[in-house]
């Protein structure tokens, strides 16, 4: 679905934000990109549909190289939709309805189809009934949902979300996680950057770790969270469930070093331990 080959990008002569990043994402994947602030996550994302053009390296979507002329960019941006960390960077129209309709209108679609897409997208994110509202009157969480709806209305094959849980309350995080799982189950490939490590094992089947513009690790959540040297370099912690089991083992309880990452895995682990005892 997506391949990045040796992307390098500098903001100026003194700061190279990406130092040769290469990665592959298969169609249908649910991928997490982990890294501390300043690691280069947002910069990498802005290369994935041509907002930024690399100094060196290439981006491929479905095996086709990303080009930077107007016609090519429109084509690729139908396939790859990016949701920015700050929704105020993305929402600009006078009303919610107009904002979500902007992308489909630029595709030259009939008004009836545009309206259908707007209604469907707003319904998916729980914002039906807000069509005539001015975006600047919405809460931060509501703005984020409108930004996601604007991308959904384009019917992308790959959705890229930069810190999508930032600014959301706990219920908003749960709702967003559920929505992303549903979209992935429907065939949309998902790529997310996040600091919410507790969520990663629950939705991601693949994890990349970015530090100072370089990828230093990739694998399943279990593989990544089992490597303390990678987590330390990236200034990341293990999920809280894993930390609990590590502390129990420190107290002398044999956990057999296979630490769970999710509540479901922890439940199964406890039941197995009880049965053995």
Task: Describe the structure in your own words.
- By secondary structure, this protein is of the alpha/beta class.
- It is built from 11 helices and 10 strands.
- It folds into 2 domains: 236 residues, P-loop containing nucleotide triphosphate hydrolases (Rossmann fold), CATH 3.40.50.300; 39 residues.
- The strands form 2 sheets. Strands 6-7-8-3-9-10 form a 6-stranded mixed beta sheet. A 4-stranded antiparallel beta sheet has the order 2-1-4-5, with no helix packed on it.
- Strand 9 and strand 10 form a beta hairpin.
- It is globular and about 65 Å long.
The CATH superfamily of the largest domain bears the name: P-loop containing nucleotide triphosphate hydrolases
Helix share, percent: 25-40%
Number of domains: 2
Mean pLDDT across residues: 88
Tell me the span between the first and last alpha carbons: 47 Å
The topology string of helices and strands comes to EEEHEEHEHHHEHEHEEHHHH
Strand order of the biggest β-sheet:
6-7-8-3-9-10
Number of helices in the DSSP assignment: 11
Task: Output the structural class.
Answer: alpha/beta
**CATH class annotation of the largest domain:** Alpha Beta
The gyration radius over C-alpha positions equals 20 Å
CATH topology term of the largest domain: Rossmann fold
- Overall shape: it is globular
Largest sheet: 6 strands, mixed
CATH architecture of the largest domain: 3-Layer(aba) Sandwich
Taken as a percent bin, the fraction of beta residues is 15-25%
Low-confidence stretches: none
What's the number of extended β-strand segments? Answer: 10
């Amino acid at each position: 679905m997506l391949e990045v080959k040796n992307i390098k990008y500098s903001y100026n002569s003194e700061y190279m934000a990406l130092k040769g990043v290469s990665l592959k994402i298969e169609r249908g994947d649910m991928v997490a990109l982990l890294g501390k602030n300043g690691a280069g996550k947002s910069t990498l994302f802005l290369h994935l549909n041509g907002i930024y053009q690399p100094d060196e390296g290439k981006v491929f979507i479905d095996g086709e190289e990303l080009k930077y002329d107007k016609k090519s960019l429109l084509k690729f941006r139908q396939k790859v939709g990016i949701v920015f960390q700050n929704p105020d960077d993305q929402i600009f129209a006078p009303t919610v309805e107009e904002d979500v309709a902007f992308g489909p209108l630029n595709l030259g679609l009939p008004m009836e189809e545009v309206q259908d897409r707007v209604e469907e997208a707003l319904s998916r994110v729980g914002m039906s009934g807000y069509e005539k509202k001015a975006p600047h009157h919405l809460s931060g969480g509501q703005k984020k949902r409108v930004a996601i709806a604007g991308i959904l209305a384009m019917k992308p094959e790959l959705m890229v979300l930069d810190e999508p849980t930032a600014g959301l309350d706990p219920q908003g995080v749960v709702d967003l996680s559920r929505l992303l799982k549903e979209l992935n189950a429907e065939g949309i490939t998902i790529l997310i950057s996040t600091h919410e490590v507790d969520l990663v094992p629950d939705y991601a089947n693949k994890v990349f770790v970015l530090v100072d513009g370089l990828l230093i690790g990739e694998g399943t959540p279990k593989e990544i969270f089992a490597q303390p040297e990678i987590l330390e370099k990236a200034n990341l912690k293990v999920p809280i469930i894993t930390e609990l089991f590590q502390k129990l083992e420190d107290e002398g309880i044999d956990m057999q070093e296979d630490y769970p990452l999710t509540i479901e895995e922890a439940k199964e682990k406890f039941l197995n331990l009880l049965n053995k005892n």
